[in-house]
Specification:
With about 190 residues, the chain is an alpha/beta fold. Helix content is about 35%, strand content about 20%. It has six helices and five strands. The chain has a five-stranded mixed β-sheet. Strand 4, helix 3 and strand 5 form a beta-alpha-beta unit. The longest helix is centred in the last third of the chain and has 26 residues. The protein starts with 18 loop residues before the first strand and ends with a helix.
Length: about 190
């Protein structure tokens, strides 16, 4: 099943808006949150996209192969308009007990991102620290942070913890790149 996702094209004369996208994923779903840059966040709500990965097998080991192959059907490809406004895609680097299964999904997602878009890999510890959270904080803590940061969609209980993580990853990527740019500007 192919994801049919169409974003509105910008009107003539309207300045281009770039986005930072955060990606969190499991062997069952890919969650992407797009945060507009250069726009007052009170005007433009970050957008959440969820791409379920389907497979007949429920076993993590055998089913992950099947669902990983379905990334190509679920996630928009490199020529899709979906990626057009993206300046940076930050994606979580897997750690933990399911790392070997998640690395498959990571590779399948990365090949869907166009070459013109920068990709930043961040570990869970890195993005949590960048937001001022504890490196081992759990979903309720980073959901609360995202809600306090102004992402009102999280008030809806249907929004997953992975979507909250994707939002936090995008925000952390912005903070990390801003810090790096400031450090470069400060160098003689």
């Amino acid at each position: 099943m192919r994801s049919l996702l169409r974003l509105p094209r910008r009107a003539e004369g309207v300045p281009a808006v770039s986005q930072v996208m955060g990606v969190d994923y499991s062997t069952n779903c890919v969650d992407v949150v797009a945060i507009e840059e250069l726009v007052d966040p009170r005007w433009v709500e970050p957008r959440w996209f969820s791409f379920p990965l389907f497979g007949l097998r429920t076993n993590v080991a055998s089913g992950s192969w099947e669902r990983t192959r379905n990334v190509q059907l679920a996630v928009p490809g490199p020529m899709a308009y979906f990626w057009e406004p993206a300046r940076l895609v930050a994606i979580e680097i897997p750690h933990g007990h399911a790392e070997r299964y998640l690395n498959r999904v990571l590779g399948a997602i990365i090949v869907r991102i166009p070459m013109k878009v920068d990709v930043m890999g961040v570990t869970p510890h890195q993005w949590k620290k960048a937001l001022g959270l504890g490196g081992n904080c759990k979903p309720p803590e980073y959901r609360e942070w995202a809600l306090a940061d102004g992402w009102k969609l999280l008030e809806n209980d249907e929004v997953t913890d992975d979507a909250a993580a994707a939002y936090c990853i995008a925000r952390a990527a912005r903070l990390i790149t801003e810090r790096d740019e400031e450090e470069q500007d400060a160098r003689p």
